[in-house]
Amino acid sequence: MRQLDRHIRNTVFAAMLVVIALISSLDLIFSLLDELSEANETYTISNALTYVAFTLPTSVYELLPFAALGGALIGLGILASNQELVVMQSAGIHVWRIVVAVLKPTLVIMLAGLLLGEYISPPLEQIANSRKAVQLSGTDSIGAQLGTWRKVGNEYIHINAIEPGGRSLIGVTRYEVNEQRQIVSISFAASGNYIDTAEGGYWQLADISESLIQPERIAVVEYLQEDWLVDLSPELLSVLLVEPDKQSITGLYRFAQFFESQGLDGSTFFLAFWKKLMQPLATLALVILAISFIFGPLREATTGYRIFISLAIGLLFTIVQRMMEPASLIYGFSPLLAVATPIAIVAALGLYYMRLVR
Predict the structure, then answer these.
(1) 71, 187, 211, 326 — which has fewest CB within 10 A?
(2) What do you get for the CA distance between the two ends of the chain, in Å?
């Protein structure tokens, strides 16, 4: 029995690895072509290659559930095509024992996804995006198409580029507003560095030009240096240039709480938080559906047809996800419900087809 379990496990796991390698290679090629289109004097081809290499773990992480789906369909499909599943069942091996053997490599994929999504891809993504922003900014002090906007207190802030680690800033523009939502001052600092103190630290800005908007005139004042006391730590800043879906689970939760503390809507970050937290369950649900198909409708199907079905399921799952996620932001229902609904649908279908297996 252990040899049969090992045979099923190894066959399915090998198929999953092959699928991961294939789709990651395709994604790598398209990502590289996309980055090369942005190459210029400051953002060179070598910079683009480095960026793609640093963001590859994120791409692999995002593709893992669909790789597990395709691997389960193909791996079990090979066993079905060779009549091995029929022989196993004829020998008295229960279907659920085969299911358990398939779920073992699935658990490895789920664990790999958690490690990639929490500890490996987020810091590499931060470094890649920070370097790219600095390289694209070149010698310009600020570019409207670059950087990120944030609201902190009564200031709207644009940061052109953040160095890796979040402790050095390039191009900081601040718009201060009063209680009547009128702009009272605009300032630009060429750079900024975080200074640690016993009380927590502050930002030291350099080469500042400030415009004070008064009722009858605009006064321009320049400073060589200014201390910027703001509740914005390097840890928070280090993720500003990274999309929510590409941040760590703990970072997303911390950043969502920070947004709410500033009176802002943190639902986008909570949505990404629940999506990443429940990705292992999505992987498990997709694999269960794949198993049910092999024992049911796809028992006699060809490998090419199984690949087509896996692509179709992955596409439909993604479409439902992409519909539910913005709907939760627009209509205000729970982000958890938006993330859990597609997973629940896939799991219910898989369990339904498994109950039909004889």
Answers:
(1) 326
(2) 21
